[in-house]
Design brief:
heterodimer, A: 3-stranded antiparallel beta sheet, B: alpha/beta, 2 domains, 6-stranded mixed beta sheet
Chain lengths: ~375, ~250
């Protein structure tokens, strides 16, 4: 405890975030081994990790760099498809941990390359214009992936935009991407453990980046671009750095997602997915990394938990979103929360908690 | 040779000639004033010197290098730092981090070192902390180091902006109305700080200010701008008695 106190505030806050993830992992493992966890919940564990990584990486663009991006699913799909193609060709013959790691790396790098190519023209735009162009990018990627036919035989890749027979493959050839049907017949490689490791890696990269020289430069652009330039910050370089890192992590999440399924189609990665991730980021708090982790996990599971309510499910989901937004963002409600907190702190049970909280504030 | 030479610089926005035929010479380590009535083009001159605007004519030479029309970040790296008339701090970041961004090009390490906490990260960060705290102490801001910049009172925000500009290790510091909104005792204190900074950092300073006591009190040489042209220049005494300057400020023919 004493060690915790002497640490820098940001370090302590980061450790709490890692702790929450590890705790979540242990609890879920315990529940699963105890047989308490339903099948459908177990099936959601890997997607939860995927969306946590997506939300944290999008928060890097939206909350830390301060640019609204609506094409995050695009980077996810680039990663998912390139990782899955590698898996189909070579990865599945390797030990599954190694194959998965290489597939993730390939997916991340490919998404990062796309982030770079798209970032150069797009980051010259600001605000609404940037949002519109990234939205278009996501849709373009989806539609291109929908129309691609890719095959593999002993001569290498065969590529076509027409249909599978136009690939002209040898006898040993197999179709990997089959147009709108996508990739099918994959063996599953992702696991909850792999997902949690990816979440921890993502948090490590993003949190360390924020608390470093490059991260400060990125945040200075968000706070005041003109002052950042006048202070000698290369705005284009640091915007690209944040955008590429964000795309890279989204690509890795895409691979995790893809290798959790036996079939992969491009239509999954439409703007609904981008908006969903953005909702997680906004409700978790823009720029608040821990908030993104919690919001993504809770809001992803919520529709499933509400399944018993049948037709009212999406209605309740929407209401919860609105209530969460008011609870987190509205100035009056935040003030009211502090009042309630003060009152509760006069009651014995809460006194210790309140003191601890005050101490934290005093140190800050 | 002068530190900064401005030669025949002008800028036109469409048909409006905002600044014309501007000639200035700034020597190393001295304190200069730039005054003039509202709308005379003082801030426009600052914006041209720092690359926010590209002059439509003329040359700006810093230390023998032509910096005309270069990007603001490049000009800062070449040695000109500035503050803004309407304060521009990194408001969500702490006071300390604001100054550490100023140190961005003074203490460097690559992104990887930061992300993976490679050897060197701690030393470089400590070096930045040390340098930043030293600057904050000069401006009496060291106690507020961990507060968000937006929570500072107005006068301290102005000081923080100067500290951040100084952190970039400039040869020339441009201050746009540093004493605006300060009461007499605060601006007296700021005057002393600016004098101290000029000696301590051996930096040339060019400042825009409307408070004449302030300008006459610390500037060794003054340029007077009216309608985008220099109408007078010289030491405080000669400016005070110059009929053209009096006419520009009070009206008349």
């Amino acid at each position: 405890m004493n060690m915790l106190k002497t640490m820098k505030k940001s370090t302590r806050s980061n450790l709490i975030t890692y702790g929450i993830v590890v705790l979540f992992y242990l609890v879920m493992q315990l529940l699963a081994s105890g047989g308490v966890l339903s099948n459908s919940m177990q099936g959601m564990l890997v997607p939860i990790c995927t969306y946590v990584v997506l939300a944290v990486s999008l928060n890097l663009t939206v909350g830390i760099l301060g640019e609204l991006s609506l094409g995050h699913a695009g980077f996810m799909s680039v990663g998912a498809f390139s990782g899955a193609v590698y898996w189909m060709i070579a990865g599945q013959n390797l030990p599954s941990v190694l194959g998965l790691a290489i597939a993730m790396l390939i997916g991340g790098v490919m998404a990062g390359v796309f982030g770079f190519l798209i970032g150069i023209p797009v980051l010259r735009l600001r605000g609404d214009y940037l949002a519109i162009v990234t939205l278009a990018f996501g849709e373009i990627i989806k539609n291109i992936l929908n129309a691609i036919y890719l095959g593999w035989d002993s001569n290498g890749f065969h590529f076509s935009m027409k249909d599978a027979t136009a690939l002209n493959m040898g006898e040993d050839g197999k179709v990997i991407i089959n147009g709108a049907i996508g990739i099918s017949g994959m063996t599953k490689a992702s696991s909850f453990t792999a997902g949690i490791i990816l979440v921890l890696i993502t948090l490590f990269v993003v949190l360390n980046l924020i608390n470093s020289r490059a991260g400060r430069a990125i945040m200075s652009i968000r706070d005041n671009r003109i002052a950042a330039e006048a202070t000698g910050i290369n705005v284009t370089k640091y915007k690209l750095m944040a955008f590429i890192t964000s795309a890279f992590l989204a690509g890795m999440a895409g691979v995790l997602y893809a290798l959790n399924m036996s079939a992969l189609a491009a239509k999954k990665f439409d703007y609904n997915t981008s908006i969903l991730v953005l909702v997680f980021v906004v409700l978790g708090g823009i720029g608040n990394i821990r908030g993104s982790v919690i919001a993504a996990a809770v809001l992803y599971v919520l529709p499933e938990l509400l399944r018993g309510l049948n037709d009212y499910r999406m209605l309740i989901y929407a209401v919860i979103l609105i209530v969460m937004m008011i609870f987190n963002q509205s100035a009056q409600v935040v003030a009211w929360r502090h009042q309630v907190w003060e009152k509760l702190s006069t009651i014995g049970l809460f006194q210790k908690l309140a003191q601890a909280k005050k101490q934290n504030k005093g140190e800050a | 040779m002068a530190l900064l030479e401005v030669m025949n610089v002008g800028i036109a926005f469409g048909g409006l000639q905002a600044v014309a035929q501007l000639d200035m010479k700034i020597e190393k380590g001295h304190l200069y004033g730039l005054i003039g009535p509202n709308g005379a083009g003082k801030t426009t001159v600052f914006n041209m010197l720092t690359g926010v605007y590209r002059p439509t004519e003329g040359d700006i030479i810093l230390d023998g290098k032509n910096i005309t029309g270069k990007a603001p970040a490049k000009i800062n790296q070449a040695g000109i730092a500035r503050t803004f008339q309407n304060i521009r701090l990194f408001s969500q970041m702490t006071v300390l981090d604001n100054v550490k961004i100023g140190l961005h090009n003074q203490v460097k390490y690559p992104m990887w070192t930061g992300v993976f906490r490679l050897p060197g990260f701690k030393e470089k960060e400590q070096e930045m902390d040390y340098k930043a705290m030293k600057l904050l102490k000069i401006f009496d801001l060291d106690k507020e180091a961990d507060l968000p910049a937006s929570s500072l009172p107005y006068g301290k925000q102005r000081k923080l902006e100067i500290a951040r500009a100084l952190a970039t290790n400039p040869k020339l510091l441009l201050l746009d109305e540093p004493a605006a909104g300060m009461n007499p005792s605060e601006s007296e204190e700021l005057m002393n700080t600016i004098k101290f900074v000029q000696k301590e950092f051996d930096v040339a300073i060019l400042l825009i200010e409307h408070d004449m006591n302030f300008v006459m009190g610390i500037c060794e040489y003054i340029y007077v701008l009216d309608y985008g042209r220099v109408i007078a220049q010289g030491n405080g005494e000669s400016i005070r008695n110059n009929p053209k300057v009096i006419a520009a400020y009070l009206g008349g023919d």
